[in-house]
Amino acid sequence: MAKNMESLLEQMTLEEKIAQLMQLATFFYKGAAGDGEITGPLEDMGISNDVVRNSGSVLGASGAWEVANIQREHLAENRLGIPLLMMADIVHGFKTIFPVPLAIGCSWDAELAEKSAEIAAKEASVSGVHVTFAPMVDLVRDPRWGRVMESTGEDPYLNSVFAKAFVRGFQGEDLTNDTHRVAACVKHFAAYGAPEGGRDYNTVNMSERQLRESYLPAYKAALDEGCEMVMTAFNTVDGIPASGNKKLMRDLLREEWGFDGVMISDWGAVKELIPHGVAEDEREAALKGLEAGVDIEMMTACYAKNLEDLVASGELSEALIDESVLRILNLKNKLGLFENPYRGTSEELEKEVIMSEEHRQVAKELAIKSSVLLKNEQVLPLNKEQKIALIGPFAQNGDVLGPWSWQGSKEAAVQVYDGLLAKISEANLLVAQGSDIEAITDEQLTEALETAKEADVIVLALGEASEMSGEGGCRADIHLPEAQLKLVAKIRELGKPVVTVLFNGRPLDLHGVIAESAALLEAWYPGTEAGSAIADLLFGDANPSGRLTMSFPYSVGQIPVYYNCFNTGRPQGENKQERYVTHYLDIPNEPLLPFGYGLSYTTFAYSDMSLSADSLTENSSLDVTVNVTNTGERAGEETVQFYIRDLSGEIARPLKELKGYEKVWLEPGETKQITFTITEDQLRYYHSDLSFQSDKGKFHAMIGPNSNELTIKEFVLNK
């Protein structure tokens, strides 16, 4: 590394050190677009031009021209020539937008997920970004929460697989020399995905054992893969907001896990210690934030206004500030910014790289693999000679990118209509809007019905506007909007085959649409190549292979509903009328569609499941094998899922836990044998004393196409 960071730190004044801990939005900086309009924000935050001049990082800067200008102006005024870190939310693509992460999870394709992150990093880096606030690995079980779209689902094992894949894609193998990569920042630490009531920023309350077993593994997986940064969560953890939680950040993250990278607050989270009720004022918030280990304060000025005084009063050791500053300087050094502060930034490469045909093709492939066929009564794939009526608010709508696609272009996204039109003649494709997202007029409905009457089959393009999910996009009622349900009901009365394509950022309550549709394709927010991917799927040029990574509830009243739940002392049996067991009087216990579920245009059969032995020890293993056969007439890809259940533990264990999976491509009539290996370490869990170990006794090994349809074999762990 080119510079000695400890030597540089020694040259810095306390004021300069504190400013390094400050992250400000782009508009504060000279050289930015709209330069010169910073007087108001500076006054509102109570910070000086000196703080801006010495600050350490920028939020939301992108575009080679703007980033280079900001960095150039900054270096001209910074006494020690310390470059800025440029950070941004590059979550599921930069300008080439991939499906939202929940959809990517449904691909069960870690290699393709890694490729999407690599492409996002390349496009972002040539536009001047050094750090992305991704991956978000929060485990999610409540679809009311808007940010489930940013997670990969409800399973800790699968989330860990994708966490590693995203980090590899963003950072590559040599972050210093590979300037087409960016540093990753795993978020939100910790347990942000479990807010009470599914309401953003709300209280999280769980035992430390549950936290370690279900919610922490994916963060740890990202850090084990070398993730450079961690972002704190907005929520409380055991009553203490994460951004001021010393036990969580210092004791667990830094001491126990050995993380020595940069920790950043989420937007305004340090100052939010005040309304949380754990800090009296900004001074106390600054003290608690830094003592907890938060290195960078994002978009509030508690550190800038109070740390110097806290050091002077003896309440805060300057050594803690030095630790944080050194971590920031080391990251800048690792990114090579002292030698090349314009790292990777290139207006020429922007024109060549961004939205390239290669990138769009990968986006299309991932959109195809992320879509999940939820129902098909022999109506799909469509015949290209049929007359098709495309109806609904998403028929000719570019709002298919989803939240956290701030650099994406809705105008550049392939609409469903254009995707279908590329496959069939204009004479065979009729179109009508049918309704708006949340409103419908008599004129729209009349036009839709008249259009539908002329067609052989009707494709309904329905869903949520992107603003209805994502951060702040929580919904208590997770049905489709009433206007669209009215459209579905009226179209269904025509008695023609209805194929519904859904665009949404969360599992929905599908009443009012699934029974009314002959086929249902969950497309999520597919990204830039939405229309072309959906057309391939609808016409059978691609075979659906996506599998759900988050359960679809039968009713919002079940939430949270997830596959890896515990049994009760009074489980519901086959007699659904029995009263004194765990059940609802008015709805099933089970979700409408389970974790791992998804259909194909072919069928698969599982047979001859066997174990290589009926027991194992701490020093041995056993193999579980199964034959999978394509029993249909089309080639297709199956996701073979492997689960384990511990039948008797010191702590009650889940009914099933995903421990592995394999994607297998099979030609019609082809059979392949799939093998999973069981070792003792896969059987470990956190006990009541938080020790991580296994229990001897009986276990079930389970294999099948989803978490509900499983073949079971029993084995024993001897210790």
Fold blueprint:
Blueprint: H1 5-11, H2 14-20, E1 22-25, H3 39-45, H4 49-54, E2 57-59, H5 64-77, E3 85-88, H6 101-107, H7 110-126, E4 131-132, H8 156-171, E5 183-189, H9 208-215, H10 217-224, E6 229-232, E7 236-237, E8 240-241, H11 246-256, E9 262-264, H12 273-276, H13 282-292, E10 297-298, H14 302-312, H15 318-334, H16 347-353, H17 357-370, E11 372-376, E12 388-391, H18 416-421, E13 429-432, H19 442-453, E14 457-463, H20 482-492, E15 498-503, E16 519-522, H21 530-538, E17 604-611, E18 615-616, E19 621-630, E20 636-646, E21 657-666, E22 671-679, E23 685-686, E24 692-693, E25 697-704, E26 711-717
Parallel strand pairs: 1-2, 1-10, 2-3, 3-4, 4-5, 5-6, 6-9, 12-13, 12-14, 14-15, 15-16, 18-26
Antiparallel strand pairs: 7-8, 11-16, 17-19, 19-22, 20-21, 20-25, 23-24, 25-26
Helix pairs in contact: 2-14, 2-15, 6-17, 7-8, 7-17, 8-10, 11-13, 13-14, 17-21
Pfam family, one: Glyco_hydro_3_C
EC number: 3.2.1.21
Keywords: Glycosidase, Hydrolase
Question: What are the main properties of this structure?
Answer:
719 residues, alpha/beta, Immunoglobulin-like, six-stranded mixed β-sheet, 21 helices, 26 strands, glycosidase, Glyco_hydro_3_N_sf, hydrolase
Distance between the termini: 49 Å
Strand residue content: 15-25%
Shape: globular
Structural class: alpha/beta
CATH architecture of the domain at 604-717: Sandwich
The strand count comes to 26
Describe the main β-sheet briefly. Answer: 8 strands, parallel
Protein name: Beta-glucosidase BglX
GO molecular function: beta-glucosidase activity
Pfam families: Fn3-like (PF14310), Glyco_hydro_3 (PF00933), Glyco_hydro_3_C (PF01915)
Domain Fibronectin type III-like: 638-707
